[in-house]
Amino acid sequence: MNLKPAWLGAYPSGGVFLGKLIVRGNMPLKGQITISGSKNSILPIMAASIMSNEEVVLTGVPDLEDINVMAEALTTLGARIKREDDVLIIDSRSISSYEIPENISRKMRASNLVMGALLARFREAKVAYPGGCNIGSRPVDLHLKGFESLGYKVNAEAGFMEGKAVNIKGTEIMLDFPSVGATENIMMAASMVPGTTIIRNAAREPEIVDLQNFLNRMGAKVKGAGLDTIRIEGVKYLEGVQHTVIPDRIEAGTFMVAAVITRGEVCLNNVIVEHVQPVVAKLKEIGAEIYNCNAGIRVTGSRNLRAADIKTMPYPGFPTDMQPQIMALLSTVKGTSVVVETIFDNRFMHVQELRRMGADIKVEGRVAIIKGKKYLEGASVEATDLRAGAALVLAALSAVGESEITGVYHIDRGYEKLHIKLKNLGADIERIE
Length: 433
Ligand code: UD1
Prior knowledge:
Layout lengths: L19 E5 L5 E5 L4 H11 L6 E4 L5 H13 L2 E5 L2 E5 L7 E2 L1 H4 L7 H10 L1 E5 L12 H9 L2 E4 L4 E6 L6 E3 L5 H11 L5 E5 L5 H13 L2 E3 L5 E5 L8 E3 L4 H13 L3 E5 L7 H10 L2 E5 L2 E5 L9 E2 L11 H8 L5 E5 L8 H8 L3 E5 L2 E5 L8 E3 L3 H13 L3 E5 L1 H5 L5 H7 L3 E5 L1
Parallel strand pairs: 2-15, 3-14, 6-7, 10-11, 18-19, 22-23
Antiparallel strand pairs: 1-23, 1-24, 3-5, 4-5, 7-9, 8-9, 11-13, 12-13, 15-17, 16-17, 19-21, 20-21
The structure holds uridine-diphosphate-N-acetylglucosamine.
């Protein structure tokens, strides 16, 4: 394999891209598309790979800015990372620092996942606290309480969260909320703590199961991921392995909505049907036709779509990461829909941008009331976060006229070559750098 030299992450120091997307909408998307590896799976798995003192090979890795930032975080610690196409090789033998500085944490919240991995292998960690973000306050109290219960002395002052082993041993941890990140961080930390740890009210997302599979392949003893109780027997050593990441259920959901909102027909390959079931169920209720086919799923949007009510919930409920995209769709169907966001406290930033395109949406607290319009109209809008950006692209694809979407760097964090994939489905979309 012709591997590039050790790579320090391609994220520019300012983190600002001036690119924009120009979309001319109102055309049905048609064709086939292959879904990339899951962003939310690969991030904790990259962090977990430093728990081994041997080389880890990850395949099916999408080309995303968030992955560049995680690679930058790991190389800051001293790991060597090589990438060739969708293969990432992580060699953590040379790790010499246990600290993630603020300039990296600020770029991506998921850098906090490195803390559980560092504690597991080196028994100490210091990670700059990223603070809030565009979709809500996002505290890390559940992560820290979990580390404390395992016997780490935790200090969360002066912009850092720090942990150091004092009297570490397996324990029972009851999460107040099934937080995805806290479940992953505690799973990693507990995997190398002596004794048995039980996590109750654990998150059940497919990405937790992928992390369990990866850890177990390395030699960990984790059981129960995908259910609400996870049992971990601590081990002393983890070996280097090869692992292929699961497909991205949120990218799949986004393309399913793209088919429906443009009243087109798209075949999605590389999809785990069970993982997208909450989105499939809602799209069917709205009136889309969805069939399983050999390679994955075929989605068709009819002209007779109807309103639906949606409440975001932890998996297997409707994913918060699909809420902005489905809201774009509901803005274009007959009737009044109600969307309730229960996971994040500020995840309606896309509403004011959708309104610029003519959407009729009223927001009261965590509830949005959407009166569907026959058409949206092209406009200049700004992506304020990753999934808000996806929602605006979808709205623009269905709208009459031309739209200009700025803030494209948010979209680059989590969608691999989005405009190219859409172009291949017949969209009139252009990226201007
Ligand atoms: C992960 C996903 C993100 C998704 C989210 C919910 C990754 C990299 N990101 O984020 O795309 O939107 O799950 O499905 O996988 N909370 C606390 N205290 C904590 C931790 C969380 O109060 O210690 C709250 C958060 O503020 C939020 C809710 O719990 O309101 C859900 O957060 P969590 O499940 O932890 O999301 P993330 O792991 O950050």
